[in-house]
Amino acid sequence: MRVLPLQPPYDADTAATLQKWMTPGSTAEPLALFRILLQNPQLSERLRSVGAGILGKSSRIGIRDREILIDRVCARCRCEYEWGVHVAAFGAAARLSPEAITATVTGAASDPAWTASDRRLIRLADELHDTARLSDELWEELAQCYSNAELLELISIVGFYHLISYVANASQAPLESWAARFP
């Protein structure tokens, strides 16, 4: 590990800030990534705000679409840490089959685990990852299913989870014991 996560006991301010990162009412130990990020409190708060918007009730994107994107981005970035956390925490709620979860890591957009809608999301994650752009063809396909506001959020999800993957990978965040592992 390059950056060691903060360890308990936490002072009152640190404990309160870490609790903001966690699901309301959670009694679990705050994630290692959160405890790494909190070593820069100003950055931590800015990232928490964006993450809460993506994962919260104000999001325009449904959980399945969101988690397909997040899992694919993290897999493409080879970020087992964040991929595993999301698969374990949200995979069932997103109704991702074991085949779909595996396909986020090993499959292509044409994988039989994906619906037509899922394939567009995989292509979105892959095109942005590979080129930092979207083809006109894919944009037109997505625009038939999503509003401009939703398209901007989809793109932002991809970008945000690249950032999170970079932080987790570069800091060598230790894998959570309960999280899923890459197939």
Overview of the molecule:
This protein is mostly helical and 183 residues long. It has a domain of 109 residues: AhpD-like, CATH 1.20.1290. It is built from 9 helices and no strands. α4 runs parallel beside α7 and α4 packs parallel to α9. The longest helix is centred in the last third of the chain and has 24 residues. It starts with 11 loop residues before the first helix and ends in a 12-residue tail after the last helix. The model has no long low-confidence stretch (mean pLDDT 96).
Gist of the model:
This protein has 183 residues and is mainly α.
Quote the average pLDDT: 96
CATH class of one domain: Mainly Alpha
The CATH superfamily of one domain appears as AhpD-like
Cα radius of gyration in angstroms:
17 Å
Oligomer: single chain
Secondary-structure-based class equals mainly alpha
Largest sheet: none
- Report how far the terminal alpha carbons are from each other: 23 Å
CATH architecture of one domain: Up-down Bundle
Number of strands: 0
Instruction: Summarize the amount of helix as a percent range.
Output: 55-70%
- How large is the share of residues in beta strands? under 5%
The CATH topology name of one domain reads AhpD-like
What's the overall geometry? globular
Uncertain segments are none
N-to-C SSE series? HHHHHHHHH
Q: How many helix segments? A: 9
Architecture blueprint of SSEs:
Blueprint: H1 12-21, H2 32-37, H3 41-55, H4 63-76, H5 80-90, H6 98-106, H7 116-131, H8 136-143, H9 148-171
Offer a few descriptive terms.
9 helices, mainly alpha, 183 residues, single chain
